[in-house]
Amino acid sequence: MKIALYPGSFDPITMGHLDIIERSAKIFDKVVIAILVNPRKEPMFSSEKRKEMIEKCIVHLNNVEVVVSSELTINVAKKYGADILIRGIRAVADYEYELQQATTNMALDSSIETLFMVSRPEYSFLSSSVVKELGRYHCDLTKILPGAIIDEVENKFR
Ligand code: ADP
User: How many Å lie between the centroid of ligand 1 and the Cα of residue 114?
Assistant: First the structure.
């Protein structure tokens, strides 16, 4: 059974993340989304709230689950039996950071592979930060957020 781990902050999950999740779910037997708690970032949504929001967006995918962890990514992967890490690449700007992360993980554990999946062009500008920035100005979020969580995110800015 091929299990892939998709780690990130998902603060909140966007259409860009969901697209990567749906495409990965077609390739792997199981996809584990890992909400990694980053002590350097002050999140807008608690990790439990982020988990709840992701779960609302993946009800149509029966081989995807969500976990929360503050451990090192490769240890989370091992814990859930994943030997593949999925990362989305939006633009060249992502590449340098992702390359550093991937080679670090490779040095830590060569049995875990990182696979990069390119973003769909319509989501290549999209990040959780863009959602927060637009939400603050009460912009329309329907094209960038999964329908299941729009109300929740909009309420946060009211
Ligand atoms: P961000 O805060 O940048 O939105 P995360 O830390 O939650 O993202 O990212 C988790 C993973 O999802 C990363 O590999 C990131 O590159 C990827 N990702 C984020 N947004 C998109 C998008 N719009 N399209 C494809 N991949 C994305």
Answer: 14
At 103, which amino acid appears? T
**In this model, does residue 39 exceed pLDDT 90?**
no
Neighbours of 122 (CB within 10 A): 12
| Residue ranges making up the domain that contains 21 | 3-156
- Give the integer Cα–Cα distance in Å for 82 and 76: 8
The count of structural domains within the chain is 1
Q: What is the pLDDT of residue 158?
A: 86
CATH code, domain carrying 74: 3.40.50.620
Residues with CB under 6 A from ligand 1: 8-10, 14, 16-17, 20, 87-88, 90, 94, 119, 123, 126-128
Q: What is the pTM of this model?
A: 0.95
